[in-house]
Design goal:
The protein is α+β, with helices and mostly antiparallel strands. The protein is built from 3 helices and 7 strands; from the N terminus they run E-E-E-H-E-E-H-E-E-H. Bound molecules: zinc ion (ZN).
């Protein structure tokens, strides 16, 4: 995954990878919930609360009797995660939803320097909500100005949506590759 492709964050807690080999926890329907340490994952494994879905191919744990591959992704056997509330509309969350790219020209944007565009301009009744906001580069934003989309030659890469999934923010360069299949973007 090149560049900023961090598809997920939890609405409440932002999680960052803080040790070498974190374990991604999925609920029983394979939705990502959080990350935990491998020690905790192994404890849960011996308590038969989880099943191991993926292992890190290159990392082993030695116990007196057995050698284990370190789990990379685990699934809680009896737990369906329910979002307590929706994903909050914030600048950062918009950036994550739009994968850090200008929604008009696909240019990669800097996390701390990007603009937010009302697709239907505020002056024309456009709302400030997930479905009417996209991130854009300054150039496209200026080009668009106070016009409606069809009055310009700009096109949206995709229709902005309200995220339903719980997704949490991960420092992309450090996202373990074994996790990527499970970090589904909605
Ligand atoms: Zn642009």
């Amino acid at each position: 995954m090149g560049g900023f492709a961090a598809p997920f964050f939890l609405p409440i807690v932002q999680l960052y990878i803080n040790n070498m080999k974190p374990v991604l926890v999925l609920d029983s329907s394979f939705r990502p919930i959080k990350q935990i340490s491998w020690q905790k994952a192994m404890t849960m494994y011996f308590q038969e609360k989880i099943e191991i879905i993926r292992e890190y191919e290159d990392t082993w744990i030695n116990s007196p009797r057995k050698k284990f591959k370190l789990p990379a992704v685990i699934r809680l056997i009896n737990y369906v995660f329910k979002l307590p509330w929706g994903v909050k509309l914030t600048r950062t969350n918009l950036f994550v939803r739009d994968r850090g790219r200008c929604q008009y020209c696909d240019k990669r944007l800097n996390k701390s320097r990007f603009t937010i565009d009302h697709v239907v301009p505020k002056s024309k009744g456009g709302k400030t909500d997930w479905k009417n906001l996209v991130i854009s580069c300054a150039k496209c934003n200026t080009k668009k100005g106070d016009s409606l989309l069809h009055e310009t030659n700009l096109k949206l890469g995709k229709t902005p949506i309200q995220p339903k999934n719980n997704f949490f923010m991960i420092i992309p360069d450090e996202t373990p590759k074994d996790w990527i299949d499970f970090l589904v973007y909605q």
